[in-house]
Design brief:
By secondary structure, this protein is an all-alpha fold. The protein is built from two helices and no strands.
């Protein structure tokens, strides 16, 4: 009977580990999509910069500030996910 309880606990831990890994994969996909969005914004910013408009400089500065903030958030999150994946025993790409 005691052996069955140990097996159940082991299975339970494996299922929890698998769920955590799946959640991490989803979060990494979400941040990858955010990174793609950022690239699009960066390209849009570059297009705006080439237009001779009065407020181009202000627009460019605010976009660059937003990009830097989003980039820092993404990088911090990706580092955190890599650490968690490593600690939980998930495969690391």
């Amino acid at each position: 009977m005691n052996g069955q309880i140990e097996i159940d606990e082991k299975e339970k831990r494996q299922i929890q580990k698998k769920n955590i890994c799946n959640i991490m994969e989803l979060n990494i996909e979400k941040y990858s999509a955010l990174q793609d969005k950022m690239e699009e914004q960066k390209k849009a910013a570059e297009r705006t910069i080439t237009r001779p408009e009065v407020n181009v400089y202000v627009t460019r500065r605010s976009w660059i500030a937003n990009l830097k903030r989003e980039t820092a958030t993404i990088q911090k999150s990706q580092r955190l996910f890599r650490i968690i994946k490593f600690q939980k025993g998930c495969s690391i790409e």
